[in-house]
Amino acid sequence: MAGSSSALGFPKSQCCSSLREQLARTTLRNVRLKGHSYVELREDNKKPIFFCVLCLSPCHNDSVLHDHLRGHLHKKNYEAAKSTLLKENPWPFNDGMLFFHTPCNEKSPLLTSNPNLGSNLLLSESNENNSLAIVASNGSPSSLGDEDNMDVDENGYHLIVPQVLHKDIVTDLEVRSIGLGKIGVRYYQKDGVRKGISRIWCEWIGNCHPNQDDTTPHHDFAILSFSFNYDMGRKNVLDEMLFLPSSEVNKENRGKKRKSFSDPEDVSESLSNQCESSGEEYLASGDSSSRKLVKYDDNSLKLGIIPSRSVRKELRVHRRVASERVCDICQHKILLGKDVATLLNMNTGRLVCSSRNLNGAFHVFHISCLIHWVLFCDYEVYTKQLVAPKVKKRGRRKKGVNITEAEKEERKQIYCAFCPECQGTGIDIDGDELEKPTVSLSEMFRYKMKASDGHREYRKCPEMLQNCSTGFHFPTQSEETMQENVSPLKMLRFYRAV
Question: Closest Cα to residue 127, out of 325, 328, 339?
Answer without folding.
Answer: 339
